[in-house]
Amino acid sequence: APDIPVIDQAYSKLSNSITAEWRAVPGATSYLLSAQGGDSFIETVVTNSPGTVTGLKPATLYRITVRSINSGGKSQPSRFRKAKTVLAAPVLSVSSPSCDSIAVSWKAVYMAAGFSVSLVRSDGLGRMLKENTTNTSLIFTNLDPGTLYTIKAYAWNVNGIPGDDFTYNQRTSPNAPVDVQVAFNSAALRAIVSWMPTEGALTYSVTASSGLLKLKCNTSSASCMMPSLQCGSEYYVSVTAYNDAGFSKPTDAISLKTVPCAPVNVSIEEDEPDHLLVSWSSVSFGHYYVVFVKNDDGLEVHCNTSHTQCHFQSDCGFTYFISVFAYNKAGQSPLGDVFNYTTAPCCPSDFRAVFVSSDTVHVTWTPVRGAELYGTRAVGWNGVVLCNDTATACTLSALQCGTQYSITVYSFSEARGSNTSCASKYVATAPCSPEIKNISKEALSVISVHWQSNNEEATYIVTARGEAGLWHCTSSGNSCALINLPCGSAFSVSAIARSPAGQSLPSYSVPLETAPCCPNDLILTQVTQSVTNISWSVGMGAQTYVTTLESPRGHAKCHTLRNYCLLGCITCSTNYTVSLKAISETGLTSSCTYQGYSSSACCPSGVKLYRLGNNGIRVYWRAAEETINYNTDLHGSKGNFTCTPSTGLSHCDITEIPCGDVYTVVVSPVTDNGPKLTFCPKKIYSVTCSGSSVGMVIYRGKSNAE
């Protein structure tokens, strides 16, 4: 084994170790260094001198021995040397209570008699400050703000031997920032706060306080944005600088008044026609207000006021979009609610009312702005008639004729309802249809028509319509006369009422038939002495005829469908009154009178022929009246002979009559005008010859012609 080493010295520079020095031992490859103190025994192997044993307790006395070692083994321990570990380093607690001071404190160190604390800027600038104290704390003042300092501290014992030192880097807290600026963005309701950077500050905190509300913004730069500020508020803005040592004092608060909030309680009303009143509640920090009004045509107007209401001119049928802004030095308030107000639709003022009939009027108008629906209202004494339609026309029916109506066309919109300020027009309906009550015949060709008058200030027109044409009469009363109506005609009579308002519907038609026409021509022809033939032209409208011949001696009458009639029992040589009645199919009668008729003179009686000498014959008769002239006609195969005696004579002589022939003898009265009468009796006589003269006249009988 190697030799025992000899310790030259043992000392402690650190509180947890002791270093020993010895002379090298030949052949030793390593050394075993031991420290024993109380119950503690610590060994460590080192290769050469000096050697240090660690893991020791501070301020503790230890026995230090050394043994040399080689391959042969270990030597005996050397003689010990006593050595005491130095004091432990104080453990510092460092802070910067202000921007120019650092406070250092520590706990008491075992066996320490005092402490030494030094402070110097870490960048080497400036002088070092050193303090010796027996206390466990001290404060360094008048330091530079925001500066990093290196602090070293150790304790010493009663012998003045220093112990371990403790080094700590501490920065002073920063100074408060300067030149703080606040830039407010009114549109975004945010503010940008900026300042000059302060020495040693790592971060900054910006605080905006408004009552109980606090907003914070942290940044490492020299500006910070404060979002989400509230309108109508006053904020107090301060900036605090921070570093690892702490924070600065807050800067003096800067007042920031934000833009006012959008006005609320906005009300819109039409305080008078064509004017809008916009009013609102005042807002905090609002110095003045601007109201913008824009209609749906794009036209915009505005009002600038320090009050809380504005007046605007408005038009019917528009929708107005209204925004109210408040202003102050910070700018414009945020956009609040955009209100829309629709004015009442315009009134149709140019409507036209055209009567379709007396009880129906068609109302038309041009479209108006803002109207979605139209209502037409007609008010009369007997009620109200309504009509609603989306079209610009309406037909009002079931109106009362002859009535004045107040007609109003209203416009409607879903937003505003009805415009009740529309003007009315007074329109009178056409007169009511008259009702014909009676038609009477006043005189020849004069028909009086009576009706019920149920209109005021109306003129009535009566029309008789038939195949013969049209006849009219006019009256403002309740009757009028149709004159010169043709006979034998059928008419349909109706009446209308006419007034400035229009014309009524025709009344119900009443049939009218005029009496048949009297025949224009009437011819009487005496067929026999007691029979007369009467013929006449056709009378318009007549179906049957009654002819009458009347005289003091009697009368004759005939009722027939034809236009001629044979009347018997006629007395000869009598003056008759001739009358004719034309009767229609419905029984209407026209009494027609004509010129009187005289029957022919009576035929003579007792006609006889007597022979005269020298081939002559006398015709003898018995005259009916002495004043009548007669004419005698003899007709035979050998000749015809005529004899007309003087007035008052009752015979006539015919000379040179051939004998030996049969003669038809007719004695008839002589008429003033016209043909001879052919209905007097005819007698046939045979005239014989006696030598060369007329012989016997023999009566042969009456002719069939009688």
From TrEMBL:
Organism: Opisthocomus hoazin (Hoatzin)
Protein name: Fibronectin type III domain-containing protein 7
Pfam families found in the cross-reference section: fn3
Residue ranges occupied by any Fibronectin type-III domain in the UniProt entry: 1-88, 89-175, 176-261, 262-346, 347-432
Entries under SMART domains matching the protein: FN3
